[in-house]
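Consider a protein example.
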Amino acid sequence: MKIAVVGATGLVGTEMLNVLSLSVLKNCDIMAVASENSRGKSISFGARKIEVCGMQECLDSKPDFAIFAAGGNTSIEWAPKFATVGTTVVDNSSAWRMDPSVKLIVPEVNGSLLDGSERIVANPNCSTIQMVMVVNPLHRAFGIKRIVVSTYQSVSGTGIKGINQLMEERAGNSPLNPAYPHPIDLNIIPHIDSFLENGYTKEEMKMIHETRKIMQVDSLAVTATTVRVPVTGGHSESVNIEFEQEFTIEKVRNILESERGIVLTDNPESFEYPMPIYCKGKDDVFVGRIRRDFSLENGLNLWITADNLRKGAATNAVQIVELLAGLKGF
C-alpha cells in the first residue's frame, strides 16, 4: 500500500509522518510530498530516510492514499486530481469539511459512516475534534440542548510562524514576520482566523458547523469563543453543556472513563487536571474539572485538553486511513 503525505515538510506534515512511523501502516510505501523548493531533500521517517518528491510526480504514481496537510488552496486544486486517478484523499484543511458530499470524520465518533468508497474525506478542525470526542458520548446518554465553549489554543495552531513569533518575543526580539496582529508572549488574543459580519471569527464558526455535522444534529445550539494563548503546543477548552435529561456526575465520569481515546484526569484534591504540558506527544484527549453548573438545570462544566498536532490533526487523519484501508481490504 502506498501512502503520500502532502505538505510533508510543514509542522503538521512532519507530525503526520511521525504518527505514521508509529502506526500499523509504518511498513507501507511512504511518499513525502512538498513544494519544488524541497524536492530532492531527504527527511526522516522512523529509522529510515525518504526523499521528498513533487506533487505531479506523486500524482503520476497513483498512491492508494494521500494525506493532505498543505493548506486549503492546495487541497482545492489537487485533491480532485488525486481522486480522479483512484487515490483516496484525507484532507486536513477546511476546504472540504462543509461540502455535503464529503464526510467529516472523527473515527471514534462517526467512523461508521465510512464504507470505503470515499475519494475525499475531511479531517475536522483541531478544536472541534477534541470537543466532540468528549461531548458526543454524553449526548448519547443525556441529550445535549446547548454547548458553550471557550478555547485556549496554542501558537502551534498557526504553524511554525506562530511558534517563531512567541519564541522571538520571549527572547526580547521583534519578530520580522509576525503571525498575529499583537504580541502573543505574556498576552492572550481573543481572535483566531478572520472576523465575519456576524462578529464571530471563521474559527468559531468552524467549531459550530463542524460539531453539528459530525454529531449529525443540525439543530444543536453551539456557541464558541476561540482564543490564542502563549503556549507552544496543546489546545485547551472550557466547555459548558446543558443537557435535556437529568444526570449524575458519577454517570458522566463512568461514561468518559469507558470511551476509547479519552483519559479522565480529574483529581483536584491532588491538583490533577488536564494541562497542555502533559498532553504533548500523546494521542488521547484529556478531560477533567468535571462539575455541575448550578446556575441552570441539567448544566455541566468540563475542561478538555489535547495535543492539537496529534489527535487534533495527524493522529485523527492516520486513524481515518487505517479505517479506510481495512474497509478496502488492504
